[in-house]
What we know:
The protein has a five-stranded mixed beta barrel with strand order 1-2-3-9-4. It has one domain (about 30-195): CATH 2.40.50.320. It is built from three helices and nine strands; from the N terminus they run H-E-E-E-E-H-E-E-E-E-H-E. It is about 20% helix and about 45% strand. The chain is an alpha+beta fold.
Amino acid sequence: xxxxKVYAIVLIASVFITYNAFSQEKNxxxxxxxxLLQSKKGTVTAINKETREVTLMGPKGDLVTIKASDAxxxxxxxxxxxxxxxxxxxxxxxxxxxPTAEEIAEPYKVVDRGGKTPEGVDPGAVVGQLVKAVCTxxxxxxxxxxxxxxxxxxxxxxxxxxxxxxxxxLHIGQVVIISYAEAIAVSLEKAGAAxx
Length: 196
């Protein structure tokens, strides 16, 4: 009888271990990475003159917080409600996993002071410091293939998705780890004021 109990315990343990290994493997998704120059038009929804950060809403409701580089002139003339056109470089890697204890303790971490450009991209391209942040998915716009995340400092970023299967698997409130070169505007031009 003891032998039967031991076999039962071993069988249950091996099923549990196999199930855990399978579920971890199934839920592990390789990171997604991209690097591109964005050209957009948007309405200023918030502006921080001290940090030179501007939050903009695009025509589809997509949000992005960018930092104006020192090359951007007349920054002080931009105000909430203004419609502006802007260009910025974007580089990011998204990891679909739970944050580590270290990442929870420090959800926003500068990992490199100066952005690096990969082969084939103009070495003079303006990118900000490389940052690793624990972010939360706030909005999923599946028809338009967009996901909006909020970073630990309250900044928003709408990511245009390409993988139709991936966007189906994501959910509101899901935590993702994003490593990115902070968006630095290489141009900001006032196109008008939003209609009231």
